[in-house]
What does this fold into?
Amino acid sequence: MNWLSFFKLPSRIAAVLAGVGMLGGVFAPSSAEAGGYRKVPEKYQDVDVRVLQNGPTLLFSDSPEMVYENGILYKDIVEGEGRVFFHHVNGTGNTKKLAVLMRPVNKLTTITWGCRGIGDPDKQYYISAQKGQRRYFNDYKELLKKAHKNELKEKRDKRRNSNEKNKELPDYSFYQKVSDLPLTTLAKGEYLEVLSQGRNMQHAGTRLKPEQLLTGMFDFHANHPVEIVIMMCDPEEDVAKFSKDGTVLPMDEHPLRGTYRNADLTYIIKKPIQMKWYQARALCLAGSDDLYFLKGTDRITGMQTVNHGNYGVVYHLIYSVAGEHPIRMGINPWGGEFYGAGLMLSEEKTDIISIPGKKIFFGKGDEVDDVFLHAPNHKRKDAEFIWSPPGASNLPIRVFWTVNKL
It folds into this structure.
């Protein structure tokens, strides 16, 4: 992860301009102008927001990021709504397998599956990360279609119209809204390997060649406690046995590992975005001094950790636009290279958005990629932008709203 890259731009730019992407990804050099990006507005005003926090328990596994030996990468027990985010590279000289095992702690347990976004093993880390994100948000889009639209609209309206004293928190889970979500029922002693979806299969898992990354995120609900074990081992290893006998690997120099509560963040922009053609509005998300980085515990060591970058957190940015001018919403990867995806909900439409929509950013920190165009046409129009910090990308990002002159 590159959550501190904003403070190390010169060396990172030099590396990428030499043709070698950081963390192993290899790309052809280009420029912001060639990619069709525009520059960050010289003058802008920050929007005023209210932030709400709730959601699933997050298991975050990214330390050690480079795995040089077989071992347990992270494990914990979860009951109720959960989310797992993992990001690991095979740093050995041999083919290994990454496995995520889930098993009941003490009784028959039903696991209900939500959104799932697992990348493909790849030496180009950005590619694997964005594939995982697009798959996750494609699931999100499909589940939104199945959910009761009137119920969702009513809850969104309540959030937008609520005042500061209203303590109601949004509920983004689909477990009570979609009746045909996939289920897995496991008796005590049974297990599921999540990546391959192999049930009670000793050799299940996903193979990684040397220097390949696998990153991904998935949501679930367990009606009783389940143990989750993330491991890297030899392909022929019995995953159930290894999950109990394998050595727990220590974290590397970046303590990006732990269990965190409330992994959904809602940013509500208090006033409609309405501007004259020369004005701009902005919001910075996941900056190095962010007050909303999740704080939790590495359950293996008991160490208190911070999820710098909020990887595995799903952000919901709720706002409205108004006025006569079309308004462009753009993303500025302030920290450097960024390669992810998100969802835009606007006017009863849901669009998956690649970020960037053209080529990869190269670390200058001053490019804006316009990802959506609103046309309020003298009416107030509501929107919701949903995204999550992608693995192998840099933070923070800034969201800009600017006006297209009629």
Q: What stands out?
A: The first helix runs from residue 9 to 17.
